């Protein structure tokens, strides 16, 4: 999986959708990937539009992380609205392939929900605080 040439954060920004707001900074993106890796180890993530959507509707808490380079945007453009309705923090990261890789999958994924867990509570709280501080789009 590591054989693919890595694109820098700046290069990935060229492929973003117009709706990818609020976008995580390079530093926050790294923290989110790290938190996703820890959550995946403890099976505390929801991956994919259908699964994330189902658990948002059920009222599950967590941080939604969306990929900013997903096309067509119709696939997942309703997720941020659902998150806002349920007061769930969400953020966009630039790359769906990096998001999939962070979750321990070879496939790219456009949405992941990180659930809180005591094993990585510190990393989760830090991400939660920073994601919540991001300005929501109008």
Give structural notes.
Strands 1-4-2-3 form a four-stranded mixed β-sheet, with helices on both faces. It is of the alpha+beta class. Mean pLDDT is 85; it is low at 1-5. Helix 2 (26-41) runs antiparallel to helix 6 (121-133). It has helices spanning 9-12, 26-41, 49-57, 79-85, 96-102, 121-133; strands at 45-47, 63-67, 90-93, 111-114. It is globular. The longest helix has 16 residues, at 26-41.
Q: DSSP strand (E) fraction?
A: 5-15%
Query: Got a strand count?
Result: 4
One letter per element, helices H and strands E, the order comes to HHEHEHEHEH
Low-confidence stretches: 1-5
- Name the shape in a single word: globular
**Main sheet properties:** 4 strands, mixed
Average pLDDT value? Answer: 85
CATH architecture: 2-Layer Sandwich
**What gyration radius follows from the Cα positions, in whole Å?**
14 Å
CATH homology superfamily name: Ribosomal protein L30/S12
How much helix is in the residues?
A: 40-55%
Number of helices: 6
CATH-defined fold name: 60s Ribosomal Protein L30, Chain: A
């Amino acid at each position: 999986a590591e054989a693919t040439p890595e694109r820098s954060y700046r290069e990935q920004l060229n492929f973003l959708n117009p709706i990818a707001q609020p976008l995580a900074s390079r530093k926050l993106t790294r923290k989110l990937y790290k938190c996703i890796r820890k959550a995946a180890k403890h099976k505390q993530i929801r991956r994919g539009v259908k699964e994330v959507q189902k658990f948002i509707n059920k009222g599950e808490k967590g941080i939604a992380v969306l990929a900013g380079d997903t096309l067509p945007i119709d696939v997942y453009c309703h997720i941020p609205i659902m998150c806002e309705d349920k007061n769930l923090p969400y953020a966009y990261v630039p790359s769906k392939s990096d998001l999939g890789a962070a979750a321990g999958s070879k496939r790219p994924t456009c949405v992941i929900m990180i659930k809180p867990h005591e094993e990585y509570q510190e990393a989760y709280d830090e991400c939660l605080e920073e994601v919540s501080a991001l300005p929501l789009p109008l």
